Amino acid sequence: MKNFISGRGFRVFAFVAIVALFVLAPLVSTPFLNYQLSLIAVFGVAILGLNIIMGYGGQVSLGQSAFLGLGAYVAAYGIMHDWPILVVFILSCAIPAVVGMLIALAAARLHGLALAMITIALPIVGVPLAKRFSEFTGGAQGATVSWLRAPDWSGLASDQWRYYVVFIIAAVFFVIGRNLTKGRIGRALAIVKTNEAVAMSMGVSAYRYKVLAFTVASLFGGAAGFLYVAIVQFTSPETMSFHSSINMVVAMVIGGSASIIGTILGAAYLVFLPVIAGQIDPTQTALISGAVLLAVLFLLPHGLVSLPRRVSQLSKRSKRSLGRPTEDSSPQNSTAQEVVDIPESPK
Fold first, then answer.
1. Is the entire prediction scored with pTM above 0.70?
2. Cα–Cα distance for residue pair 304/283, rounded to 1 Å
3. 247 and 148 Cβ atoms separated by less than 8 Å
């Protein structure tokens, strides 16, 4: 049982339980809850891309919201002009991926603060550009679309139908992300993350895999933008704001970096925290978010995904402390005490 809780068995069980919950929940929940669950899938894809570059690749990226917003704008523009949905989806993924690759080709040789500044500039520049090119983006007012209604043969409400479409697409991206991180690319990224000099000595091009990680993260961000428009039916410059990028980074840290399940937990945190904070005090959302982040960093440095392992470690530690014999009651000390207390026989 202990091995199950702390090992692979628990992770498999938790993953199956999460998938079952996401599959069955829309049939018995309210439209608002379906909307929230759909947003978890949307931001899960975006955070997974961020996790590939930061958690698995060890690089700094603070501009994921720019790619999400770009994908959302491409999707909204294509839908408003009656493009085929498959073409819209491909372009929503491809255009952010190309932009991310071009930026990575110039920035991947940078490190630390320099790389962080490059990625910070993406949402900072993206927001005014979205407002300026209003003929494509709708300007500051944003763009509203209406699509993805449930077909009559499905027997589902529109919120349920949108949920399942988004969930299936998100599941495909999670499978792709898992295969990337568990395969040869993931092993190469792990080496680059640990030591670039060692990677070069082993024939692994750190520059190439950095560019690849940025490109994949951008592609996942664009796909999340497409899914965002599918659920929210609206996008605006605030979609790609720097604040949104920071929230996704925080969610990745709280859920657990370099973890697929941690990505899902982080997305759930990102969606549900504002709702819970709104029930407590709507004006203190940032304060509550900061308190949760500090608590997780101090108590669970590896994120919520490490909670079972942490509980197992604390349980073993407490059992050891309770089962350890004291110095006075140990058999060796008592025997020695008896030997010391035996008086010498008179000569």
1. yes
2. 26
3. no
